[in-house]
TrEMBL record:
It comes from Streptomyces albiaxialis. This is Wzz/FepE/Etk N-terminal domain-containing protein. Residues 180-207 form a coiled coil. The keyword Cell membrane applies. The chain crosses the membrane at residues 21-41, 233-252.
Amino acid sequence: MSEETIRLVTIGRILRRRWRLLALLTVVGALVGYGTSAVLFPPRYTASASVLLPGQWEERELLTQAEIATSSAVVDRAAATLRWSGTSGGELRDQVSAKAADGNIIKVAGTAETPERAQRLADRVAQQFVSFASRVAGDDADSESEEATEPEALRKKVVQTNRRISALASAADPGQTVEGVQARTELEKLRTALQQAMKKLDEAETATGKAGMVVMGPADKPTGEAPPTRTQLVAAGAVLFFLLAVVGHLAAARTDRRLRKEPEIATALRSTLLGTVDVPGERPAHRSRGRGAGAWLRRVLGLDVRWNMPAPLLSGDEAAGRIRYRRVWARLRDQVPSPGRLLAVVPEGDETALLAAGQLAAEAGGDPSASGGDPVLRVVEVPVARPLVPDRGAESGALIVLSAGSWTAGELTGIAEACADAGHEVVGTVVAGTVRARPARTAGRPPRTAAPAAAGGDDATGGTA
């Protein structure tokens, strides 16, 4: 697993090198959100009607009234008055909600497929709620006038009785006889009982007045969809797929086991690192060479080039690049003191290493006597999945050329074992890296170039170093 810290530069690299894939996945996510809005969450509209509850109400009482507004007794009656085909009270119960607002107001909301149906649903439920609450409190229309006059008449009679009691108390024996004291005591008890009865009457009248609920006008016709709207689902799908794509790239980078450091590569191949060489190129040459619709799609989306490879550094001049190749050959001569032919093993698909091996073959030359006894390279590509190296012939060893960050330790071990199985001793490892070429010179002596030679099993020869 890669222990490289995920930084903003990593996110920027994903956006820069995978923008086509990210754009495609974002569009796919938007289409998925649109399909979800059409199938699972069709457009819905919500309208609300307000019901005023006069009098003094506690918070728990308002919550109870909100529950009554969405009860089956109210919603079933609303469904019966609406007479919508194929819609029962049980289905409408999921489309109705109620909540207590400030100022003793119950807001009844109805949700439906069209603004008109939502408005009608909210109005009918509010009306049925008021009617049901009135019946529960006993506030029927037939007894409304009678109940309004009886408490007032009773109150007048209580006032008259209090006056009569006061008169009797004054007419009683003013002395301190036992009979007088008892009479005044009984009269005060009667006065207290009447006051308590009037208090209970006032409380009962207040409770009866609570049932006088009023619908505060018809529900407003909704002008917009209820959340989640189609626009919200489309945006959510696009953002979700984009984030999943970025997180997937980061997770793949964290679990990447391909070796990037030269000492780790040499250890996996159980060989000596001879050095690193540069291959000019604007971007890493890890392109897929497949054909067909799949390969074309990968090239269009940019999947044929790895995104997590570092940007190529700016190369030095021509002489600096050739010095690197010559130093590699100097170390190779120390590893293979006797002249002879060498086998340059390149993992299949590693175009950077293939170009570097061709340049090394050009530096080696085709004739050992002409090149001062230096070995000559024969470049071969070896499949990584099932590595198979040609049997040993005139070669005196194998030189493995590959690029960093392309292969895992297990894959490199397989290549080394294939070389040993074919009778080739691995004399060294060369790591190739991509660099950006400097701008072409406009004046002066043109730089010396060496044509790289690459072959798949044939001899590769070139000019002497």
